[in-house]
Amino acid sequence: MSLERLEGLEAAHLMPNYRRLPVEFVRGEGCLLWDDEGNEYLDLLGGIAVDNVGHCHPAVVSAVREQVGRLIHVSNLFYTEPGVELAARLSKRSLGGKVFLCNSGAEANEAAIKLARRHRRGGGIVVLDGAFHGRTMGALSATPQEDKQAPFAPLVPGFVSVPPEPEAIRSAVGPETAAVLIEPIQGESGVHPIPPAALAAARGACDAAGALLIFDEVQTGAGRTGTLWAYEQGGVTPDAITLAKGLGGGMPIGALVTSAGLDTVLGPGDHGSTFAGGPVVCAAALAALDVIEAPGFLDGIIAKGARLRGLLEDLDGVSAVRGSGLMIGFDVDVDAPALVRAALEGERIVINATGPSTIRLVPPLVISDAEIERGAGAIGRLLAAARSSSA
Ligand SMILES: *Cc1c(COP(=O)(O)O)cnc(C)c1O
Predict the structure, then answer these.
(1) Catalytic-role residue among 43, 100, 132, 159
(2) Contacts of 303 (CB under 8 A, 6+ apart)
(3) In the chain, at which residue ranges do the beta strands (DSSP E only) sit?
(4) N or C: which end of the chain has fewer CB within 10 A?
(5) How many CB atoms lie within 10 A of CB 75?
(6) Which residues of the chain fall short of a pLDDT of 70?
(7) Segment 232-275, tens digit of pLDDT
(8) What is the atom index within ligand 1 of the atom nearest the CA of 219?
(9) Three-state DSSP state, 287
(10) Is 243 helix (H, G, I), strand (E, B) or coil?
(11) pTM here?
């Protein structure tokens, strides 16, 4: 089907809630994508930090093919093996408590919000300015952005937002607080790491108040920052983490993982989801984890991230390069959304703008050094062209 026809059908039948770029992708492999005319693109966005093991990783493809041909869905009224195996593995490799499986990042945060409210009935939830936790009503209420929240008021009550500063966090947390919910590196706002002192202040304040410290690792998890979870680098261990995006090798899955003390907070009937923890997505997640946890893989991400950040820092027009591993944001002195479009059409690279002057790169973690150089070179040429035409 031609792109024009797709655009026409979308306009006729889909709600106009996405702003899509004018390209139809039909195939992917590793860090590369191909459009319907056979053109090759270098993907530095990875389906928004989802395709961590690359497009169509052979291990994920074969795990899904094997499972999908045997059993797709039976519901949580029965046992299936992959979900139980995945929960055991996630717990063992993180906080050691129990796991709630779900289907997306917003749902993982909904589960975390319910966990916190069940743990301290009526308690408030403290979030940080600039945060993004998802689009469902609870997760949206935890996302203090006027443009996203205002059209959907009234929101879920009990959320308060403070700047990511130690004193502000300490003064917002008290005996009525159920939880502090933090993205250790804010992704959608343009890759802003929360300062270690603010994370430590949140930990101390939660301990003093008996509140839960919950990290939203939906974007930072699954190897993205060069450790399996970002909290491993920040010096602060949360009571629970929420996961999604890169967890399923491209398949839709989310999870809430708690520490051991929270094992009995959510009981029978407290929460659930029909599709959650199904065998196909869990088989995919297990295969993706095998790739990410293979010896040397995570160390390679630290090295690749440092290389890419170094190349970006050398470009004219780039400032404030930030992030960790292969979660990278930087500011440009030209129109970022226009740069994204020029990148797609002129250089055939996929990048992302999180704001009018901010670019985010969250490529597949399997990106090669040659692809890193190709990407940085292309961004350099695009910037030079945009800056000379605006000068
Ligand atoms: C993407 C994202 C979400 C929402 O995940 P969905 O799967 O889109 O619901 C929540 N939190 C963070 C930090 C995210 O990056």
Answers:
(1) 132
(2) none
(3) 25-29, 32-35, 40-43, 96-102, 124-128, 159-162, 177-182, 185-186, 192-193, 212-216, 240-243, 254-259, 318-324, 327-332, 349-350, 352-355, 358-361
(4) C
(5) 13
(6) none
(7) 998 999 999 999 999 999 999 999 999 999 999 999 999 999 99
(8) 15
(9) helix
(10) strand
(11) 0.98
